[in-house]
Amino acid sequence: MGTPPAAQVTGLNQQTWSDSIDQVSADVRQAFSGLSLAQLNWKPSPRVWSIAQCLHHLLVTNRSYGPKFTQLMEGRGPAKFWTALPGWAKLWGRLIYYSVKPGTSRFFPAPTLFRPEAQPLDPAVLQEFLDEQELLKSWLARLEHLDFERSYISSPINPLVMYSLSDAFRILVTHERLHFLQASRVLATNPLRSHVE
Known about the structure:
The chain is built from eight helices and two strands. It has a two-stranded antiparallel sheet with strand order 1-2. The protein is 58% helix and 3% strand.
């Protein structure tokens, strides 16, 4: 069998990413809908995020990519000097992907830009996260005319860190699963959990 055309591969990946976004949304609804303010904001220790903070972290992270996607659509991606460096974008894509992959043995603290608010969060953060999920899916559709493997964006954190559009979505959906699992572990140890079961 020959190698599938790039557009076909991108199309398959887009469907996989869209399905993953939908699955995380469904899992979040099932696991956390109906929780009280206290349950959403409960923390097993001061150093561990609450469920609400996990959702807020995902919300602000995903939202920060909107301007990057807009720049790409307007032809204002990273400087070609950097994307032309052999292996530069691929290296960063791989490093960041493995840093957010569930089960990773290394802990990387969230950049300041992506850290959730410290004070108790309103239960509305759950719906805000779900709304942002739909927006993330809409970006997939709006960007579908691009070659995801040869289109690049810079990180919202550092303009010298860049990766392909394909790696960007792979990182985002993997990152969502990582923190959904984190929030689920918090719920499993929450002494208030029995009050809604």
